[in-house]
Amino acid sequence: MAIELEDVSFTYLPDTPYERQALKGIRLTIAEGSITALAGHTGSGKSTLLQHIGGLIHPDSGRVCIDGTDLAAHTKQEKRAALAARRKVGLVFQYAEHQLFEESVYEDIAFGPRNFGLAETEVAARVREAMARVHLDFEAYRDRSPFQLSGGQMRRVALAGVLALHPAYLVLDEPTAGLDPRGRRELLALIRELHAAEGTTIVFVSHNMEDVFAIADEVVVLRQGEILLQGAPTAVFAERERIAAAGLRQPALMQLMTALRAAGVPLDEADAGLRTPADAAAAIARALKGKEGSGHAQ
């Protein structure tokens, strides 16, 4: 099962002076159980692509399929199937706290399950479960106004509201935008945890290459509405010139490891692909210790 985009093209404001083609013949399969990052400069088409996956907009040509079902529907039967497919996708917008609107954390998270027509006992169970998944204590936060929480906590509430719908696919638009460093680290750790615990398929848009490098299994780089690069993070970011052509840069950690190796630190070539500061620090320490030992031996 997967998300499939088949020759998807989309134009904003067609046949007007403001016409702009945002996507051009996109062919992409997002495998079940993966964490896929959509990266690109402003205007590259990444958020438009995400909105197609979420079923918010439909392509001018081509198809977007969730587990084999086309999200664009015409007949009654197709519309029922498309609605069921769209419900498999949980979409969290950029600045997700703007999705919040109820008077309490509980009511905000409960809104979606209630809208699905679930019994109140099931709604309550889902709210409690979703809050636990995002590490918000039920008793401490259930009656609090979401607008009195920190930015990171508000984003957790918004994420819980989507998780309460039990989506098969979690789609995130710039999940760490606007967060302070601590909030960013905590949210990235939470995304990794959700994926590791349940194998949730996650698709996220980001302009932050540190975030992409840290958690993605697959990176799709877009440029002017087309896929420029696709593959594992280390392989994609090794393409420095092509990455630069997309208005992006290598992650700082990868730049550091490459520079140290060029300066004579005896790091393995594979060390350039280490994706956490802790792993990189350990590799550097081993290399320097080995170099020091070689020096004494001479």
From TrEMBL:
Known EC number: 7.-.-.-
Cellular component, GO annotation: ATP-binding cassette (ABC) transporter complex
EC supergroup of this enzyme: translocase
Domain ABC transporter: residue ranges: 3-249
SMART domains referenced in this protein's UniProt entry, alphabetically: AAA
Binding partners and assembly: Forms a stable energy-coupling factor (ECF) transporter complex composed of 2 membrane-embedded substrate-binding proteins (S component), 2 ATP-binding proteins (A component) and 2 transmembrane proteins (T component).
Chief place of localization: membrane
Gene Ontology MF annotations: ATP binding; ATP hydrolysis activity; ATPase-coupled transmembrane transporter activity
UniProt cross-references to PANTHER family, sorted A to Z: ENERGY-COUPLING FACTOR TRANSPORTER ATP-BINDING PROTEIN ECFA2, HEAVY METAL TRANSPORTER
Family: Belongs to the ABC transporter superfamily. Energy-coupling factor EcfA family.
Keywords, sorted A to Z: ATP-binding, Cell membrane, Membrane, Nucleotide-binding, Translocase, Transport
Function of the molecule: ATP-binding (A) component of a common energy-coupling factor (ECF) ABC-transporter complex.
Domain of life, source organism: Bacteria
Cell compartment(s), UniProt: Cell membrane
Protein name, per record: Energy-coupling factor transporter ATP-binding protein EcfA2
Membrane topology classification: Peripheral membrane protein
